[in-house]
Each structure stands twice: as C-alpha cells, then as structure tokens.
Amino acid sequence: METCYIFGAGDFTPCTIDLTSKDLVIAADGGYDYLIRLGLRADVVLGDFDSVTSPDLWDDAICEKLTYPPEKDDTDMMLAIKLGLSRGYREFAIYGGLGGRLDHTIANIQSLTYLAGEGAAGILYGDSYALTVIKDSSFTVPKDATGMVSVFSLSDSSENVSIKGLKYEVDGVTLTNAFPLGVSNETTAKKGIISVGSGTLLILWHP
Fold first, then answer.
1. Alpha-carbon distance 180 to 204, whole Å?
2. Is 203 helix (H, G, I), strand (E, B) or coil?
3. By C-alpha distance, which of 110, 137, 147 is closest to 193?
C-alpha cells in the first residue's frame, strides 16, 4: 500500500525502511537531519526551518522545499500530514515524532487523532514503542508486537470497546479519558484486534 512517510525532529530511532516509487517522503523541518542519518531521500522538505541543521545538503533536483512563517497555527508535523492527505495518501508512518519536548509529543499524538478523524491511519514510531489512534473503527495489533499493549480513551467516553486475542479480553465495555482501565495488556499467540463502536482510542504497543 502507498505510504506517506514523515520524519520529524524528535528522538532518532535507527530503522530500516523499504521505500517504493509510489511512497511519499516528507521531512518536517529538522526531520531532514533524521533522513540524512538514515541515508534516505526526501521528496518534500517543509517548515519554518528553525531546527534543520543540514540545509547545505538539499538537492534542488529531487527535493521540493515549502517554506512557512514561524508564526502559524499548524505545527510542521501537521503541515506534513495535511500535505500527505492533499496528495491522496491514507496510510502514514511517522518517525521522529516522540521524545524531546513533551508538548511536541502531545501535539503529534493529537495529529494522529486528526488523521483518524479524516478516515486515514497513522502510526508514530519511537525507540521502543509505537502509537496509533482509531476512531469508530478497529485495529489489528501488528504481528511483530511483543509484550505490553495499552489502550486509552482520548474522547470523554469510548463506547462498545472490544479487545480480542490479548491476555485480557473484553467485549462491549466503555472506556473513559478519566480512568486508565486499558493500560498494560499483553500480546498472546492469537491475533490481537481492538475495536471501538463510538469514540477515539489511543493504542500503544512494543514492535
């Protein structure tokens, strides 16, 4: 499936990414430094460029640069997400969006919520864990997930939540954003499926 890869300026996580010609790679400001460390190309570099340290390595022949003013409503990560959506992408893999400043991490989690509201799917990858957000839908825990899986309600109330194939299974329960009932579940040999009938869930697991 065609994927929009977005790289931010958060904590660096060494990884191997197999890109195809149909994928879109966006560096959000200092995320370009992240790409340089991975040895990957960028299709688009965007932002107000207050954190990138390698502008001398930009290649005008292959890299589209979009410059925005420092004072704006959208974060650089949100600008990248909106660009990916505008170009038809519905699957997003986001690196460099965790760690560093806590407010940026929270903003990036909210950006996942924005994607879910647009009917798209996004995953934030960190050094030892990954996050996604679903709204009125379901999520299959990746096969490479090991150990802990946690589920949190981001909406005031998430109704008809079901968790199947994990150590602790539930069916049709309600989760709220005022009590962490879904923390510290565990993977099993079964396929893990998490669904919510009405509401928004944050799901965290260890790849």
1. 13
2. strand
3. 137
pLDDT by residue (tens digit) across 152-193?
Answer: 999 999 999 999 999 999 999 999 999 999 999 999 999 999
Per-residue model confidence (pLDDT) at position 52: 64
Measured between alpha carbons, how far is 38 from 56 in angstroms, rounded to an integer? 17
Q: Taking the chain, what is the end-to-end CA distance rounded to the nearest angstrom?
A: 20
Tokens read off for 63: 């890299």
Distance CA 116, CA 95 (A): 18
Identify which of 9, 78, 68, 19 has the alpha carbon closest to the alpha carbon of residue 43. Answer: 19
The full set of domains in the chain, from first to last, is 3-127 (3.40.50.10240), 134-205 (2.60.120.320)
What pTM was computed for the model?
A: 0.90
Is 4 within 8 Å of 23 (Cβ atoms)? yes
Which tokens go with 37?
């460390």
